[in-house]
Amino acid sequence: MTTTRTSPLLTDLYELTMLAGYHHHGMHREPAIFDLFFRETPFHGGYAVFAGLEPALDALENLRFNSEEIAYLESLNLFSADFLDELARFRFTGSVRAPKEGTPVFANEPILSVEAPLAEAQLVETLLLNIINFQTLVATKAARIVRAAGEAQVLEFGLRRSQGPDGAMSVARATCIGGVGSTSNVLAGMKYGLPVKGTHAHSWVMAFDDELSAFRAYARSFPDSCILLVDTVDTLKSGLPNAITVARELRQQGHELLGIRLDSGDLAWLSRQARRMLDEAGFPGVRIVASNELDEEVIRTIREEGGRIDIYGVGTRLATCAGRGGGALGGVYKLVAIRNQPKMKLTADIAKATLPGRKDVWRLCDENGEIIQDVIATPGEQPARGMTVYDPVNPTRYRRLEENFECRPLLDTVMRDGRRTRPAPSLDTLAAFCHQELDHLPQGTLRSVNPHRYKVSISPALHELREDLRRQMQT
Amino acid sequence: MTTTRTSPLLTDLYELTMLAGYHHHGMHREPAIFDLFFRETPFHGGYAVFAGLEPALDALENLRFNSEEIAYLESLNLFSADFLDELARFRFTGSVRAPKEGTPVFANEPILSVEAPLAEAQLVETLLLNIINFQTLVATKAARIVRAAGEAQVLEFGLRRSQGPDGAMSVARATCIGGVGSTSNVLAGMKYGLPVKGTHAHSWVMAFDDELSAFRAYARSFPDSCILLVDTVDTLKSGLPNAITVARELRQQGHELLGIRLDSGDLAWLSRQARRMLDEAGFPGVRIVASNELDEEVIRTIREEGGRIDIYGVGTRLATCAGRGGGALGGVYKLVAIRNQPKMKLTADIAKATLPGRKDVWRLCDENGEIIQDVIATPGEQPARGMTVYDPVNPTRYRRLEENFECRPLLDTVMRDGRRTRPAPSLDTLAAFCHQELDHLPQGTLRSVNPHRYKVSISPALHELREDLRRQMQT
Question: Could you give the ipTM of this predicted complex?
């Protein structure tokens, strides 16, 4: 499987004009650190699931300007020949630190940090945001849906409502990290090794003279993987009785009907009726698949009402990350150090200030491995019991770390000198890791509506640094 | 510029299992017609802007299975060797009828119709929906924003919040058809010939010791295209005074500051203050750019409050098609004829019934070219004054065409025997066409909130056909 080339022109023009400016002023090689973080958890939820790292590292490793791209930039009459020569030789040579994909992450903590010469670190801003923002958002939505579905399986089929071909590929990949086990997208199945699943469309039924003939024909073609869509005519009066007829015929031939799919109407009620009809006919093993504008809230309601659905097919609302606080993850990428000096953006809106300097993020766990909170610290500083830690946004709020805890660093060096430090983990591994980490979060944080706010604090030294810089800037 | 190959595996698995089934039952070559349409106008608005046709035609012309893809399908153990041989020889040989991109289109009318052997028409369902749904949605959002902005320009910079790399490319392309004149996405600039625009980021200011030094440096690098971001420290107390200082210095050197950008705070109020300060300092020509979670509703409010913004930079909410009734266009693709027999889906939910058979769509205009309504008709049937036409969803609602009108067909044959019938029009042409067509819509239809419902009717013969089929199916 070849990697699709990501063009370095997939960037906002201002990255290139800033690069040209840095070059013009001889600043392009100054060492810089940028942090990628978000300020609000998506879906008004308690957590986000970090995703998109491996595609981002692929893009960084292979970022090159080709001659057609240089010629295009020349045609804009904005850039000097010197600068274009520099671009033609461009390589990303920096380091990247990040958590493993699948890690639950929270507002205000760095989820990716780039250390590189200023020009290189600046150029990759748009690219990193494009990949990380969307995949993290989708992985989060997927995790929310999977947790709402409980024991039932979730199948992704958002291809027809995603943002074009590779929007759909990103959806399938990130969705898998968030715990969705299979997809209808065949290309994603091939590229990412995901199980592919499907049933048939209404058009199959309409292509035959009647529903029963259509069902029989499908069962003849796929006797061992037959899932029949039962709502083309009338779910309970036509679809179910015909499906049961076909299930009996299949059984006489030594096969079992795999399932039926409901795609309209009151899914909670219809699934209870369908379950009863199938059970009474002697088919307790036939599974019930449901689809139609599902998301975590609808699924939760269906389960509360005693719906009997075994597999939820989730499309539009997953692929578009619909819902309150959804649609986009507002990740930003901010300069935090240059020439080895910490930098901070200070604005009238305190919530938009940034945390200065190189930082580590520590995740604190109790003796049972249950996650307590995160602490953002300066290099070399490790959280300890009794330490006073501060709110990352509001410097007047603080608390003491009273608990016994162990702590582990969240950010690993995943790229050094422009090369990956280790091979990409498999999506299966990442999905299992995500599942396990979420299970160790405080229960209230997992609640899908009005969750408990997971604590992210900053260390005393980082607090001091921030206060010092604030004082310097305000004088 | 080479076209990126679209893999035929970019499809839902069920398309392939249905294909295998049709092949198994010897139905794959039966002539079929499928219509693509939507049931609800996005954003609760009065119209949608049709887009995505040319990329869809590109994909259809080049749809081929390669050996790696066939081998992958073989590995699924779902498909016979015969069928896989057939796939290896797959070509799309059908016809496509559609409006020109940029055409305002409405609920329940076909916006694309495919006539092809059943297998071919079925296989392309997911691909067509993926491309047309999203581009039409974005073009519509763009048109809404452009109309809200009035005389001000609109600049697209949604790259960092779109669904991955080519999500962003689709956004830039469709946005242009909807009337957004320029983009920050450099690759889209190159690929689609769009003007690229940009300013600089907060990081530019932070990379220098102070804001004034940063502004001076940027102005030295780009003396004739300098737009300064003024909110890094404090918009009115620091950003504007420093920008004015630099504007004076530039003027002494024979250049003019191009603009300033506001990216936070109360944009209506700040833009009025900024305009006053710039004017008083002798810089009435410096343009004011604004950004920060803008969309048609925010822009309208800013203008109502007397905001003085010359250029709106629109990102997240455009790229994600945010807003009430946004997020996704629910386009569907339904079988309407097979073996030259009209087909209709009849469900308990009357709104989900389909219109049977091959159809033309006529657009009726008055003597001044003002658009009156659309009529969906059977082949050979043309709307005439005095004709009784029916609601496309509710057969008990009808009206007489009382007006004098001329009418023109909306659907052109854009592909025949699997080849385009004409070259792709330029995006400029499509954008101009869209602008002009929207101007001829009934005024109430253009209203962004609670618009007048544009009339789409069905002809007497189509009404009869629907009633006949309904009676047949209900007996």
Answer: 0.91
